[in-house]
TrEMBL record:
The keyword Transmembrane helix applies. Coiled coil: none annotated. SUPFAM superfamilies: L domain-like (SSF52058). The keyword Hydrolase does not apply. Belongs to the RLP family. It is a single-pass type I membrane protein. This is Uncharacterized protein.
């Protein structure tokens, strides 16, 4: 029945025909389920109503699921109410064979602090309760589920420390706790207890402290999201040792068979992107919106399998690593709103796969590198608030030597101009001073005229004497 255009009320007599094993009604337009529709489906093992329009109370529809139920998927509907029965346990406690549970993207609520069976269902491999209004502290259990491979609790109201119940979940591959109220530090046991972890998402919580060095012991980790927390200190210098990020991830070389309902939401360019069937290709690191400081470790550039890297909105200083061009697969790079300085490394222009770039609000300077890929970013805002930057798409850079020559020529021209001005001013001043004094003082005027007459007499006398002497010599 999946992927059709069925609508209205789901047939309540679905189990009347005999030994029904699977109900696959995903991606339709069903709006309602009659109360206890599946109560008499004693052989039913799988129920899937993903992405319908069902508006109903969860307990009224599925309050008494079959004991042999293995999979319940009702994500992306409008289910409301609680998961808890009158005794405070979840309604699925009798379904001991359950391996797949997906109640995500509904309007469910309730405090799960006292629920024990939810966390120790020994066959449960996949659980997604994300995007509801669930709350409480994840309890510690002496006998937790050891087969859990994927746990999604994102976008709820869970609180408390990092769930200690996961310490025995050695098969865990995906852990998404983002968008809750978890607090405290990342426990030191995490890498030893979760050796196969590939996807760790802790964003938008209140985790604090330094990033523990033990996190570097993850051999398979290919996605790390610690964004929007309160982590402090420096990024560990050996952050380039994540084996799962050093090599390109290909669908064929993965030893993990991703469950059908597995999906992750990644924030790129301030937008969320949902990955499901392409989850094996996700390789990225997001440490944005924390209080991390000091330099970007050069070891990060050895993670050549990275497809996105976000270190924005921290207090990072120093320069951008010069060999950033080694990240040949990088599609998104965000280093904005830090205190980075120096020039942009020329190797940045070598990132042929780069589709998103943001270096704004730093202290970068110099010419923006030129290259075929960087020329595809015409938006000047990705370099904004870096007063020392120039070049495309910002204003053109001025040649330093030409600038010096122009400055020298301008200085010489100014000196010549000032010289002329002083000479002209001196002549004018002397002229008026001389003639002003001469004509304003009568006695000086008479003396001047007498001096001129005497000088004239002397000149004439000398001329006559010279003429007579010359004439005598010729005679």
């Amino acid at each position: 029945m999946a992927k059709n255009s069925f609508s209205g009320v789901f047939p309540p007599s679905i189990c009347a025909g005999g030994a029904l094993v699977t109900v696959l009604a995903a991606y339709n337009g069903f709006t309602s389920l009659r109360s206890m529709t599946f109560q008499n489906c004693t052989t039913l093992e799988h129920i899937d109503f993903t992405e319908n329009k069902i508006v109903a109370d969860l307990m009224a529809c599925f309050g008494k699921p079959p004991e042999q139920l293995r999979g319940l998927t009702v994500s992306n509907n409008h289910l409301y109410g609680t998961l808890l029965t009158d005794d405070g346990e979840v309604f699925l406690c009798n379904s001991t064979r359950l391996s797949l549970l997906d109640l995500s993207n509904n309007a469910l609520n309730g405090d799960l602090s006292n629920s024990k069976c939810l966390w120790n269902m020994r066959h449960l491999e996949f659980m997604d309760l994300s995007s509801n209004s669930l709350s409480g502290v994840v309890p510690f259990l002496a006998t937790p589920n050891r087969n859990l491979q994927s746990l999604h609790l994102a976008n709820n109201h869970f609180s408390g420390a990092f769930p200690l119940v996961l310490k025995k979940s050695k098969k865990l591959i995906t852990l998404d706790l983002g968008g809750n109220n978890f607090s405290g530090g990342i426990p030191s046991w995490i890498s030893k207890s979760l050796p196969d972890l590939r996807f760790l998402l802790l964003s938008s919580n209140m985790f604090d402290g330094i990033i523990p060095s033990q996190i570097l012991q993850f051999r398979q980790l290919q996605l790390l999201d610690l964004s929007k927390n309160k982590f402090t200190g420096r990024i560990p210098s050996n952050f380039g040792n994540f084996t799962g990020m050093i090599q390109e991830q290909k669908n064929g070389n993965s030893t993990y068979c991703y469950l059908p309902a597995e999906q992750l939401r990644i924030v790129l360019k301030n937008e969320g992107y949902l990955y499901n069937f392409t989850i094996s290709f996700i390789v990225g690191m997001d440490l944005s919106s924390n209080f991390l400081s000091q330099e970007i470790p050069k070891g990060l550039t050895s993670l050549v399998g990275l497809r996105y890297l976000n270190l924005s909105r921290n207090h990072l200083s120093g320069g951008i690593p010069g060999d950033v061009g080694n990240l040949a697969l990088l599609e998104s790079l965000d280093l904005s709103e830090n205190q980075l300085s120096g020039e942009i490394p020329p190797s940045l222009a070598d990132l042929k796969a780069l589709g998103t770039l943001n270096l704004s609000t730093n202290g970068l300077s110099g010419r923006i590198p030129t290259g075929s890929q960087l020329q595809t970013f015409p938006d000047p805002s990705i370099y904004s608030n870096n007063p020392g930057l120039c070049g495309f798409p910002l204003q053109d850079c001025v040649n330093p030597s030409a600038s010096n020559q122009n400055d020298m020529k301008q200085d010489e021209d100014m000196e010549t101009l000032w010289l002329y001005c002083f000479v002209v001013a001196g002549v004018i001043f002397g002229f008026w001073l001389y003639w002003g004094m001469l004509f304003c003082k009568e006695t000086w005027r008479h003396v001047f005229y007498q001096y001129v007459d005497s000088m004239q007499d002397k000149v004439i006398t000398k001329k006559i004497a010279a003429y007579r002497a010359s004439k005598l010599r010729h005679e």
